[in-house]
Amino acid sequence: MDLLLTPGELERYFDHVGLPYKFRKEQKPSLDITLLTALHTHHISTIPRHVVNIITLANGTRWVSDTGFGGDGMRKPMPLVRHHITQNVGPQEIRFDYASIDNATNTSPRRPEVWIYQYRNGPERPWNSFLCFTETEFIHNDFEVMNFYTSKSPDSFQTVTPVVVKFLREDNEEGVGEIYGKLMLVGGDVKENLGGKTRVIRSCKSEPERLKALQEFFGMVFTEEEQAGIRGRVSELLPN
Questions:
Q1: Most exposed of 47, 62, 172, 179 (fewest Cβ within 10 Å)?
Q2: Same-domain status, 130 and 14
């Protein structure tokens, strides 16, 4: 099996996400959930990307790491166990169900079941289903097709509503991080959740205002050519 990243590329990646030295190869860390959690936490707060990864550790347990789903995504790896509840940011709880989805057309007794990611904003709230996945491995071409649909289809909210999520990380004395909150930009609104209720902290009314917010809150700076790329599109933020 070919390596996806060379040792040098891995080191540059670890440097970029700020992975503490204690987890580097030369320190011979255990390939366990502690290392996986550190990778997830430092990745999600630096370069989040929405891909479901199923990891099997040496002890046989299976975990899911998805570092770019969005504001209601997992802040640390979750055990791939049906109805095991994991505490997320603030009062939010998350879990996996394993069941058939309602709009599946196969009604046979052997109706296929899928893993379903669910969340609720408190123990008294009902569970909400967000996404589902199987254990079939996807390759690069599969993701290209999926990305084309979400970026072009008029039925996808992502073609009309820019969404940015930044998970906020706090490092301890050893440099190991923990997610304590998140910043989000949805359309023209900048939202903040520090472990409680999400609140709007700024509403942008134009592209210059949104560009300023992206730089101030998310550290994103765009060239003049990049700024012009949104002009004339349905996602452009125009004053009322």
A1: 172
A2: yes
Q: At residue 7, what is the residue type?
A: P
Per residue in 57-84, pLDDT (tens digit) is: 999 999 999 876 777 888 899 999 999 9
- Residue 82 DSSP class: B
CB atoms within 10 A of CB 228: 11
- Is 122 found in the same domain as 179? no
Assess whether 172 and 110 both reside in one domain.
Answer: no
Single pTM value for the model: 0.68
Tell me the two tokens of residue 235.
């996602």
Which one-letter amino acid corresponds to residue 11?
E
**Is 142 contained in some domain?**
no
Long-range contact set of residues 174-181: C-beta below 8 Å, sequence gap at least 24: 174/20, 174/22, 175/18, 175/20, 175/21, 175/22, 176/20, 176/22, 176/38, 176/41, 177/18, 177/38, 177/41, 177/42, 177/45, 178/41, 179/41, 179/44, 179/45, 179/75, 179/76, 179/89, 180/89, 181/89
Query: Is the Cβ–Cβ distance between 41 and 23 less than 8 Å?
Result: no
CB neighbour class for 209 (10 Å; exposed up to 12, middle 13-18, buried from 19): middle
